[in-house]
Design goal:
Blueprint: H1 2-9, H2 16-28, H3 33-46, H4 50-62, E1 77-81, H5 89-99, E2 104-107, H6 118-122, H7 134-144, E3 146-149, H8 157-168, H9 175-188, E4 193-200, H10 209-225, E5 229-236, E6 244-245, H11 247-260, H12 264-280, H13 287-299, H14 302-313, H15 319-323, E7 331-336, E8 341-346, H16 348-358, E9 374-377, E10 384-385, E11 390-396, H17 399-412, E12 413-416, E13 426-431, E14 434-437, H18 438-441
Bound molecules: uracil.
């Protein structure tokens, strides 16, 4: 291991045997953590070639079980977001894609992020089970095209070990390490089609669009090299996505979008993600046709029905979601605009932190989260406001938490005197043909009326 660390430190390229030796030793304890940490730091500074990154990804996949979805009918699809604030697109895109014929068996972990993951969000529906016996799970996915469970199998154990060490050694932000980590999990989960949403901005891993494009290009190449159909949207996470941030609030917003439509940014991205899955899965001949079909599944209510079926199939009581009696935080406080003007931005990172302090996110994996709390952003970037208008609502466990959140939320809003141009939410798309700027492809993601 000493020689391998020295090789990488000096800019050498690791072979498959060397990577396999390292990961094997890291998992069975024969290589101490301090040597793995040194290797991670060497990779952080020296990078990896594309070939090395493919090998690392493959060896991480091979370190554990791999799901075999071949017994399921249809094209098996998956989606993954690199993590954002208020990102409930999975809850909207999944039912729409399933309603249009894709089969989706999705693994979703509990989140360690500032706000919950999809699994945490769905647990705000009373009775919803994230663990389902395997035969039942496959039957459900075959019948309704949709199942969502927490990860119970031993998939990619090498990623878990490496990630924990990266987290403690300031080596998370390395392009090859992120790409191998994300893609190994997606590849082990078995879907043939993988659509990614790579975020950039204040609420995301990647600071700017250019680095997000580089990460997306690498991940698409890894997946394509592995024989899967992969593409990636590049999207801004400067402001939270949609109106809701917080677990029950986000499920409520997803339900509202599927029933009646909703915030334009959320609606566009959710439909685009579902349409891209259909297109990559060969169920539509063009992106435009795929988007049209997804839009129809939204407008005629099939997407909403499919979400209800998913929740009910896994034990969820959907009556409160259907009757509108779903949100039950004890203390709801309005946040009023201190001045008139134009909402230029809402800092996603600040919103995530204040929502975590309200109790919606975890610091440690064993922490309990409060599903009831969060914020609802009535005014979004691009809106004009008059002094005293309601900007947002805070949903809190008590007044004390609410007061702090109201104060923090006011500092997250950037209200300008004059209107200014705002960049579009979607920056572009990477597929096996390379990067496409949003302006060049946006026409495909508009429903014909
Ligand atoms: N998400 C992952 O799963 N892995 C990373 O390295 C970064 C984000």
């Amino acid at each position: 291991m000493y020689d391998l660390i020295a090789k990488k430190r000096d800019g050498g390229e690791l072979s498959r045997e060397e990577i396999a030796f390292w990961l094997g030793g890291c998992l069975d304890g024969s290589i101490p953590d301090y040597q793995t940490a040194a290797m991670l730091m060497a990779i952080y500074f020296r990078g990896m070639t594309e070939g090395e990154t493919f090998l690392l990804t493959e060896e991480i996949v091979k370190s554990g079980e791999q799901l075999d979805l071949s017994a399921l009918p249809g094209v098996k699809a998956d989606k993954h977001s690199t993590g954002g604030v208020g990102d409930k697109t999975t809850l909207i895109a999944m039912p729409l894609a399933a309603a249009e014929g894709l089969t989706i068996l999705k693994m979703s972990g509990r989140s360690l992020g500032k706000t919950g993951g999809t699994a945490d969000k769905l647990e705000s529906v009373a009775g919803f089970r994230l663990t389902v016996p395997e035969d039942e799970l496959f039957r459900q996915a075959a019948e309704i095209g949709l199942a969502l469970i927490s990860q119970s199998r031993n998939l990619t154990p090498a990623d878990k070990r490496l990630y924990a060490l990266r987290d403690m050694t300031a080596t998370v932000d390395s392009l090859p390490l992120i790409a191998a980590s994300v893609m190994s999990k997606k590849l082990a989960a078995g879907a043939e089609v993988i659509v990614l949403d790579v975020k950039f901005g204040s609420g995301a891993f990647m600071p700017d669009a250019e680095s997000a494009v580089r990460l997306a290009e690498l991940m698409v190449k890894i997946g394509t090299n592995y024989g899967r159909r992969v593409s990636a949207f590049i999207t801004s996470m400067e402001a939270p996505l949609g109106a809701a941030v917080g677990n029950a609030l986000e499920v409520w917003e997803a339900a509202e979008v599927l029933r009646h439509g909703g915030a334009v940014d959320l609606l566009l991205l959710s439909q685009a993600l579902a349409a891209e899955q259909l297109y990559q899965g060969g169920l539509a001949d063009s992106r435009k046709l795929a988007f049209g079909r997804v839009h129809t599944a939204l407008s005629d209510g099939r997407g909403w029905q499919r979400l209800l079926q998913l929740l009910q199939a896994q034990g969820g009581d959907t009556s409160a979601l259907e009757s509108g009696d779903f949100l039950c935080a004890p203390c709801v406080v309005s946040v009023l605009a201190p001045q008139s003007g134009f909402v230029r931005g809402i800092n996603a990172s600040q919103v995530a932190t204040l929502v975590q302090h309200l109790g919606a996110g975890r610091m440690k994996l064993e922490d309990e989260i409060d599903h009831r709390v969060g914020v609802w952003l009535d005014k979004k970037p691009g809106d004009t406001v008059q002094a005293g208008d309601r900007l947002a609502q805070v949903y809190a466990a008590d007044e004390e938490h609410a007061d702090v959140a109201v104060r923090d939320l006011l500092t997250a809003y950037d209200i300008a005197d004059v209107p200014c141009e705002l960049p579009s939410l979607i920056y572009g798309l990477v597929d096996d043909g390379g990067f496409h700027a949003w302006n060049d492809i946006a026409d495909n993601f508009v429903a014909e009326v």
